[in-house]
Amino acid sequence: MSASGRLRPLLIVLCLAGLAPAAVAQVRFGVVDRATIESRLKRYRGNNATRELTVKQLFGEAGCKDVSEQQVKHYPPNVICVLPGETEKIILVGGHTDRVRVGDGVVDNWSSASLLSSLFFSENIQPPRRHTFVFIGFTGEEDGLIGSAFYAKHLSDAERSRIVAMVNLDTLGLGPTEVWASHADRQLLDALALVANTMKLPLAAFNVEGGASTDSESFAKYKIPRITIHTITRETWPILHSDNDTYSAVKMDNYYDTYRLLAAYLAFLDSGLDAAQSQPKASH
Q1: Is the pLDDT of residue 255 over 90?
Q2: Residue 283 lies in a domain
Q3: Helix, strand, or coil here: 240?
């Protein structure tokens, strides 16, 4: 197996009801094998600076030719991988790389940070994507969304206007895929439900309220459409920021299902984002 893992190309067809005539989106993406996903998850060890460097290394192993770092105050840098598309419209995919000192920080949030390179690999197929994908490992989320706020603030108005979606990943692998529906753009939420239905993968809504926040909120203030995908429930919430946040907390079957859903979802956003404005109905 190569360093970037084996890639299995897939095609799904989604029928978007309510349009005249009905629109059909053919969604092409790849799926990295489960062993590669699991091996990347196991590379969680180290402090925040080490984890940022590991994410950068994972991007390189996945074949990203445009990897950079954005210095953020006294924190480890944001690490950024760009997959060029045919247009300047951007789909931004983020997950924070930092952890708290308690536990190993595997679920929160190495589960997301280590997945970014696999999602890059899934979307990096021919022909080029319509949108440019920007994958970012954000620093300093646990200290108040430091890295994402810094990134969003330092974009120009023109650069912000090109971002059509901010897909945030936080705390994956605790169970089936969840979405923070009350803090999600409706179009992005409907699109996620459509893809989950088509692929027959579980999806539920759990709204993370009570003062909690995540990196997507750094973009909401600029009116950038955003969605946060996670796996938190009332039962699993106590695992966060505790000694129980270890590798053993991850349910690998659920984690791999979430990865597959995300790979298809990002491909659909690239090919069918505009058509998803209608109420969708899925079919194979």
Answers
A1: yes
A2: no
A3: coil
The closest alpha carbon to 169, from 236, 261, 253, belongs to 261
197-226: pLDDT as tens digits: 989 999 999 998 776 899 999 999 999 999
Q: Are strands 226-230 and 178-179 parallel, antiparallel or unpaired?
A: antiparallel
∠ CA 18-30-35 to the nearest 5 degrees? 130
CATH number for position 164: 3.40.630.10
Q: How is the chain split among helix, strand and coil, in percent rounded to 5?
A: 35, 25, 40
The beta strands (E) that lie in the chain are given as: 7-16, 23-32, 67-72, 75-83, 90-96, 132-138, 163-169, 178-179, 204-205, 226-230
- Residue 111 in any domain: the answer is yes
Residue 1 lies in a domain: no
- The DSSP symbol for 140 reads -
What distance in Å separates the CA atoms of residue 165 and residue 52, rounded to the nearest whole number?
Answer: 24
Q: What distances in angstroms separate CA 214 from CA 12, 140, 145, 169, 251, one per listed residue? A: 31, 11, 7, 9, 22
Helix (H/G/I), strand (E/B), else coil: 20: coil
Angle at Cα 281 formed by Cα 278 and Cα 284, nearest 5°?
Answer: 135
In a domain, 50, yes or no: yes
Q: What's the pLDDT tens digit per position in 70-94?
A: 999 999 999 999 999 999 999 999 9
